[in-house]
Amino acid sequence: MSKRAVMIIIVLVVSMVAGMAFAKEGYNLIFNDLKGHWAEEVITEFALSHLVDGYSDGSFRPQTYMTRAEFCRILAQVYRETGKINQESLIREQKAEVASKIAEAVKKYYRENNFTYPVEIYNSMVQWQKISLPMLKDRYLSSVENLEEYDYYLRADTQVIASYYRDVSPNDWFFEDVTQLYELGLDLSTDSLFHPNQPITREEAAKILVMSIDAVGEGSFNINYADLGECSNPAVVKRAIELCLMKGYADNTFKPDQPLTRAEAVTVLKNYALLVGSKNA
Prior knowledge:
mainly alpha; single chain
């Protein structure tokens, strides 16, 4: 992938962030609160690309926190722009891998609309490990003969997501983004809640980004921020740092529970887009 293509991905990604006051008609490229800010160059880069704007008072508000929904929208857009999300190929793979197992499960366990979870229904794909009972009792599964007509992909859009994340509705502006991330095996829940309007913490962002790229592994033992012991999963944070997605602060802390700011989010997602772009080159 060329540098120009990567840059296009980056600016397109940033333009999708909800609630970040992007320009509709005309652009105000003078942000009165960015001079001397550590992210001034990155934010200005996006502004000069005519894709990001500030607020009506001339500010960018780089220290305003980003919500979980906004962050996931950016991540999903990166996936789409880099070709990681390909709905058609996903459907083909899911049908090939799952159809026979579901058919056998239906034959053995479907009795008068009384379905219990069989071991046979599960497989290695994370999204199929969270199938809900209502989907299995769908009228299309009442007979094995109709199984091939069942649209497997719709299960997440209308059933699994809405039931698994109790605070997410198909009418939400971020529903498609969360659905596609879920399809790829990214579990964004906290006790079956997504908390879309809650600021995303630095550790949460690290976990989502790392798990979307590769396995966590053990992480580097050479990364020793003073507060790594406060992380719920230090290996995730270490891996995010190894991949140059995120870094700590000058006081030798990572601040895992601190919400991610707009400035940090723009910087982190730029790093992510560049990394994903290089992996797909």
